[in-house]
Amino acid sequence: MSLKLNKKIIFWAKIAVFIALLLYIANVFRQQPFDWSAVHKQLRTVPHPERWAAALLVLTPVNWGFEALKWQILLRRVEKISFLDAYQGVLAGVSLGFALPAQLGDTAGRVLSLRTNRARAVGASLVSGGMQFYVALVFGTLAWAYHMAIVYERNSQTGNWLLALLSALSLGGVVFGLTRRRLITYLTQNPKLNRFANYWQVAGLYSDAEIGLALSVAVLRYIVFSGQFYLALRLVGILLPMGISASSIGLVFLAKTITPAFNLLSDLGVREAASLWVFLPFGRSGYTLPASVLLTATFTLWIANVFLPVLVGLIWVWKLKLTTE
User: Fold this and answer.
1) Domain total for the chain?
2) Mean pLDDT, to the nearest integer, of 221-239?
């Protein structure tokens, strides 16, 4: 009954957050209604928009290629697979993640693409997701610090407390990395948790070199999809100083990372609400940032980075087998 109660609490918490996001977006549009003519006018001012669109699309397979490489590296302790097989598993996870809540779909797609050692592969998948989360956290912390320095209204006591919390979490990731083997050993010896050891014990098997390599790939992937966000902004004619662009993109991705995923929606809605809030002060500072144009950029990024890979990943979803060899 306790498990059922926890599931209900998590479900309704996600619904509450989702409704709050919709209300925030609706409030923005109440103040500034979506204007298709403004979007069309803005697009006409962009020289050679097809070049920005082409660059955005070209980086999509690169983005997921880095994720596949990270998955292949971390899976070596479980099962050695080719880069192509890793890529197929990642895309299958993207497709299932579109329909299943939180990390469940992504993990299921990757694990079901394997024929053996699926229990240990769950742990590898969690490590992979944790690394990407940590990279977004560190870059997001730096982005928030810069954001407070250039946006006076955000430099408040609450903002400083948030910076302290993000910094502590970032430092906590370093401590966890240094003590991970001892922590895994302790958890394994716990009778209540030992039965789940096959799922997370693999996290203690990685060498420092493997962790460093996979983490480096995670950073490269972060740089790629941040670049895609910048390209999407340029595609709709939004041009901001590099410091503002980089910090704002970092904050949007931080919000997207720490906000619970919603069934059937992936991160759609989270990125839009975060973008409106993050970029709002710069619209008051003389930069042209209509809400309709900004949401067009974020939706374009979602189409390129999520929706198209989901369609491609459906090919491999049909090939997944529920039974192991």
Assistant:
1) 1
2) 94
pTM for the model stands at 0.85
SS (H, E, C) the chain: CHHHHHHHHHHHHHHHHHHHHHHHHHHHHHHCCCCHHHHHHHHHCCCCHHHHHHHHHHHHHHHHHHHHHHHHHHHCCCCCCCHHHHHHHHHHHHHHHHHCCCCHHHHHHHHHCCCCCHHHHHHHHHHHHHHHHHHHHHHHHHHHHHHHHHCHHHCCHHHHHHHHHHHHHHHHHHHHHHHHHHHHHHHHHCCCCHHHHHHHHHHHCCCHHHHHHHHHHHHHHHHHHHHHHHHHHHHCCCCCCHHHHHHHHHHHHHHHHHCCCECCCECCCHHHHHHHHHHHHHHCCCCCCCHHHHHHHHHHHHHHHHHHHHHHHHHHHCCCCCCCC
Mean pLDDT of 22-27: 58
- Residue range of the domain that includes 176: 2-317
Kindly report, residue by residue over 126-149, the tens digit of the pLDDT.
899 999 999 999 999 999 999 999
- On whether residue 270 sits in a domain, the answer given is yes
